[in-house]
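stuck on this chain:
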Amino acid sequence: MATHLFCDGIQRRDFLKIGALSGVGLGLSDYLSLAEADAATNTRARSAIYVRLAGGPSHMDTFDMKPDAPDTHRGEFREISTNVPGVRICEHLPKLAKCADKYAILRGVSHTLAAHRLGAEYLMTGNRPLPALKYPTYGAVVSKELGAPRDIPGSVAIPKGPTGPTGFLGLEYGPFETGASPKAGQPMNIRGLSLSNGLTLADIDRRNNLVKRYDTAFGAFAKEDKVLSGMDEFSQKAYEMMRSSRTREAFDLTRESPSVSGLFGDGGFSQSCLLATRLVESGVRLVSVQFGGWDTHRDNFNRLKDNNLPNLDDGLAGLFQALEAKGLLKTTAVFVTGEFGRTPKINQRGGRDHYPRAMFCLLAGGGMEGGQVIGASDEKGEGPRDRVISPDDVAATFYHALGIDHTKEYHTPTGRPVMIVRHGKPIPELV
């Protein structure tokens, strides 16, 4: 059904509501006050940040510690208290311990795909992969459903996105890739956005006009080809971004206030998280941040304590605090996950291997209540204790926070109807 707007922005259905309210003694001013109050309390997210811990982090060495497990399982790390009574996490995450009230920990998330590519596809789409169908990732769906200003990308991937991120949706919903992680105190020189080598906006305008002339000549062909039309849409978006001072400023970390930038460390992941906060603030609908190095088949504990965990601590704690400082935490849904967990039993090389039967995810913002642990794994961290949370459930919850109906159907180029998420239900504690 079409929605009709009047010149002052009031919808036709609003006048019907006003008519109904008049029967109980309420008029236009009363309705507008109620509407304003409702908008103020609406905690649906307008944007999202997806943090991918590529490689598969160990659940037992991060957010699901097992201090009472056998020596062969529990590892070297101790658990520490957080600012939420009863919630304990790894000792090498002290900053995240101090802001545990900002995020929810999902334990006992479980699936059966132990290969990196398949597990990643599952966790980045909410759908178990199929050989004959490529599902769109969160960035593509969010871009399609929520849209974005013409001069702002719908989704941004730092430093890069997954292969085939749009699935069957089309190239126009692909992410803008930064190509590199930002460096502290330095503006980013991004290919396709930054003006370099003497290039001016006038030069860009001339090239765009030339492209338009070709489009006029060959437009009929492009309309019949979804790939070509998608490329055209994507290139036009790129042109408008390049011309936009708002977009260039969003990518410039040197413009961030010291009070916010000081919340982050100097590492690449931490600075990527800072950039993510600036991008959602500018209107980007979904920012994906990739942090790799979690495939710890050997020397698991040294690699985690010397590198991965301190960097994760700096970046995520800074992210949650910066979003709150900017007033964006309620309107930004945050999803942190790897593709699977790692084996509870330590191998002979001092590492942990692929293990999808038990893993963790973090969810925050967008009206989802932090400061809670949902689900649990068993005494040895080998699987869910009594409640299985699937990647499908987590995806449905993530979309719910964004006001997107995960049961909505799209159609593939061949006309096949496909739900955004085939299975799964929003997690009750978070909706």
About this structure: The longest helix spans residues 300-325.
